[in-house]
Prior knowledge:
Blueprint: H1 7-24, H2 35-57, E1 66-74, E2 79-85, H3 87-103, H4 113-132, H5 136-145, H6 147-157, H7 163-190, H8 209-224, H9 233-240, H10 246-252, H11 255-265, H12 277-299, H13 303-322, H14 330-361, H15 373-387, H16 393-408, H17 410-434, H18 452-467, H19 473-476
Antiparallel strand pairs: 1-2
Amino acid sequence: MEITSHILLILMLVPFFGFLFVLMSQEDKQKKIYNGVAVAEFAVCCNILLLGKLLTEIDLSQNGLQFLSSYNWLEQPHIKISFGIDIFSLMIALAIHLMLVIGLPFAKNSQHPKLLISLSLLMISLLTGFLISADIFSFYIFFTAMLFPLFVLIGTVGEIRKSSWMFRFFIYNFLGSIILFLVVCTLYQYHPQTEGILLEQVAKLRLPRIYEYWIWGGIFAALLSRIPIWPFHYWIASITGAIQNPLAFLLVNLIPLTGVYGLVRFCPKTVPESVSYMLTVLEIIAAISMLFIAMIGLINKDNRYKLFSFMTVYYIIFLLGALLPTNRILLNIGYSIFAFLIIITVLEVLADYIREEQQRNNLNFYGILCYSPRIALLYSFFTLAAVGFPLSALFINNFVILSYLFRYNFNLGLVIMIAIIVSSASLLKELYLLKDNRYVHSDSVCISDISRSVFIGLSSIGVLLLISFFNPLLGIGG
């Protein structure tokens, strides 16, 4: 265990130092290849190896966070921050790093590659810190700090033209951070702890009724500010749908996952009985949101918005599964998120390539893949894997999650199934139009197919998903 005594801190610092190095690096003379790409890939691969080390030592039968480590933050007032990890947060962290491995090679085509790569590393560093936070103070610090690279990414690499969208998006997210800050101050003021307040202790604190309403209402409101919840979903959807870079799009769409993860980490199933009704309200809001956003995704013509809609529906499904009064499916949710993030990453990378080729050659969208066998095969495989065909761990674990949701509340399960069918139909419709050969002639200009090396690399990801059908750990040696 000596090597793992500070491994969580190292996980957070490696991409942060990579961010600093890339930020200070210079472009080469040809302005095509950046030293930062190699540094970023090296930093991310190092973290993947460290996560693999944790996988070999983590105890899957043990509940709660493992590899706990604490560090003094302030003396007056005395605040100590703590880090820990379990298999759920570990699977999410591993998937996020694999997302960056897939997306980084395509960052060089951005208008601001150096800024994109450096901010991606900073975002990964803060996301890792958020996932390993074990106390309320460090949880809040990383929860808020993620907004800085997020807004810079959106404003520069994302090329958002309408300032009103940015303003609403900023206010919506920043209000959540302010609310959580007030909650943290209230907890430390009412219940000072010399060793800090762990996340799992919040539900066990004995508070007056009015404090319970404020603490838990504030926690739910702050974390929901990161999720596209109706009627505020448009403030997030308008931003994500307008982002032009695939890597920036994927990083921004990790923000809803932080809201889902935060609600899971606070163990809402053990909230005080006096505020348990808030979970019922949360379920109703979540069900309405996922159904509404799925319908919009079906009728919207923009394929990036369709992908955003699909991601939001599944984020809410994972959230509802985590809110169930049982810990049995938490590991299934972690496995599903792992496969889900990888599938979505490949789909967005392929879709962005198709969009660029379409604009460059001024081609019709319909049937654009008819004469591009490599990209057509990959896009078809990952689309079918996303919508629920038995091609990855997403299928079997989502089946388990849905069975528990139906058992808990049949009406809720029915709404979820409708949302899944609608959002899946949206992706399948997109695939059909891309391969509809009625609009293509043999003498038509076609898009350039992806290179053999890219095809082999993305195909290997598909093989990994097939190998890890039941449990992603089977494919990575855990």
